[in-house]
TrEMBL record:
<dbReference type="InterPro" id="IPR002514">
    <property type="entry name" value="Transposase_8"/>
</dbReference>
<feature type="coiled-coil region">
    <location>
        <begin position="64"/>
        <end position="91"/>
    </location>
</feature>
<dbReference type="InterPro" id="IPR009057">
    <property type="entry name" value="Homeodomain-like_sf"/>
</dbReference>
<dbReference type="InterPro" id="IPR051839">
    <property type="entry name" value="RD_transcriptional_regulator"/>
</dbReference>
<protein>
    <submittedName>
        <fullName>Transposase</fullName>
    </submittedName>
</protein>
<keyword id="KW-0175">Coiled coil</keyword>
<dbReference type="Pfam" id="PF01527">
    <property type="entry name" value="HTH_Tnp_1"/>
</dbReference>
Length: 101
């Protein structure tokens, strides 16, 4: 999964939802709709793809937006807990060494 560059724009969930609805209901291509809205065609394609997944129309195993957010949150929590465990391990070793002196 690639990260966004600092120069990329952030769009509200409402804007994305409306853009997807327009892309799906329009006679125009996704590229034409994207151009009309001033967004990248690839970005709009990704929004449409994710909207379909969220509606249960995606490929088997594709993560919904809610599942992606939960996965991100859980990965962050694991990193925090790993850091805590590392600190506790070092503290335990330090105090064990102090006790033997």
């Amino acid at each position: 999964m690639s990260k966004k560059s600092n120069t990329s724009k952030r769009y509200s969930a409402e804007f994305k939802r409306d853009a997807v609805a327009l892309a799906l209901s329009s006679e125009k291509t996704v590229t034409e709709v994207a151009r009309d809205l001033g967004v990248s065609p690839e970005g709009l394609r990704n929004w449409v793809k994710q909207a379909k997944i969220d509606r249960g129309e995606g490929p088997a195993g594709a993560l919904t937006t809610a599942e992606r957010e939960e996965l991100t949150r859980l990965r962050r929590k694991v990193r925090e807990q790993e850091a805590t465990i590392e600190v506790l391990g070092k503290a335990t070793a330090f105090f064990a060494q102090q006790k033997t002196r």
